[in-house]
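Handoff note, outgoing to incoming analyst
You'll be picking up this chain. Sequence as last confirmed:
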Amino acid sequence: MKKTRIAILASGGGSNARKIMEHFRNSDIAEVALVVSNKKDAGVLKIANEYHVPTLLIERQDFYQTNKFLTELEEREIEFIVLAGFLWLVPAYLVKAFSGKILNIHPALLPKYGGKGMYGHHVHEAVKAAGETESGPTIHWVNEHYDEGNILFQARCTINPEDTADDIARKVLELEHTHYPRIIEQEIRKGMHQ
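Most recent structure output, in case you need it:
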């Protein structure tokens, strides 16, 4: 059986990307075939090298104003895209080409604390400032707007009054690592039976 080829798009350290690469390393249904970043010093690129996964660096102009990136994905036979801390808005042409095949994880319970500029620590600080009693990651399909695609899965953790933004970040990240690879696999399996 041919494995589904996944591309991970990431801008940062890549801890979620690592968990996904680990998860699919010996999988019979899918493999991480490409790691794409918009930052040449992103930690995720080193992790990709550890796992012998090819990497690609993208320029903003190519990503938004040409079909170069789409052509690259097609040439590499990529069938599924996973965003793991990727900070650029996915352009409409890519959403259309990979309709129902782009997943993102957001470190808060959407629809709260989403949108442009709401990533990483900004999210956890906003959650803390609002006095929320729980938070957790949201896994959702990607559309042309930040954090507005259909929600697929949410996990929750309790926030204690004494928790700092760092504490919240740690709790949420643990849930991301636990659930994201599993949900990706679940959706790829579903796609195979359609």
